[in-house]
Amino acid sequence: MKRYIAVLLMLACTGCAPVKVNVPDIAKSDSLQVTDMRPASEKEKKLFSLLITSKEYGVVRMGDDKLSPPPVRLLQYQAFQKFGRGDHQPNVIVHHFVIYMNARSQLRSGAVGAAVGGMVGAMIANAIADHDTSSQTRMVDEKSFDNIPDEYERGLYNSSENSDKGSVYIIYVDTDIDGKRVFTRTIA
Fold first, then answer.
1. Three-point CA angle 74, 16, 119, nearest 5°
2. Beta carbons within 8 Å of 154's beta carbon, 6+ residues apart
3. Which end of the chain is more exposed for a tag (fewer CB within 10 A), N or C?
């Protein structure tokens, strides 16, 4: 379920304007109560740095305003579809739901291409870059997530996760459904 939401969010966040997702019968899921315990910062967009030499360059935290309905509302709908159709309505708590876009490598190659060959060089560098990466989800530990010293580092990947160094979305979802807590990290 979380992978489906992650891919949907990744597609929705690629544009500049807010994306409206048409979800059939979304009102049916209103009966499922979801408690949003996320830190306020996870709901807001943040561009970490525009300076190409900065270690934070190319990492962006996406805000809730990029998607309508908001990400937690879509999670509520998916939880209702999976768990809430019977007599028992599960107790759903969202501890973290944050999306980072990492376009560092692609932005740097475009900047280098522009410096060397102007607009044509930037377009060539962008065309050469591989924009496809496979989606992968893994479990993460809340303590390791919370102990990352600088927030931008949550939006980083290693070479085994993205060997082509294309732009990626890194999505963290930490939920508790009826006392079962699951924390995932999806890169797509």
1. 150
2. 98, 100, 145, 148, 170, 172
3. N
